[in-house]
Amino acid sequence: MGHAYADWMAETYPGEKFVILTGFFDSPPSQLINKGMTERAAELGKNELVTIEETKYSPDNAVSLARDLVLSGDP
Length: 75
What we know:
It is built from three helices and two strands. Helix 1 runs parallel beside helix 2. It has a two-stranded parallel ribbon with strand order 1-2. With 75 residues, the chain is of the alpha+beta class.
């Protein structure tokens, strides 16, 4: 899945930076998706990873993190 996400992102948003909002850092599914996405994005060289943030599988946490990242104005 991580490779597919990175491929789609490179085609749809080339040159854009991205953030991964993951479930739990130590969750095997999250680790596999994060690894696949970061490695594939690096291979393609079209998008830059800014950070990986843990949401603890909480929609409220994910929305809050996304909002804070957007409002921060940081790339």
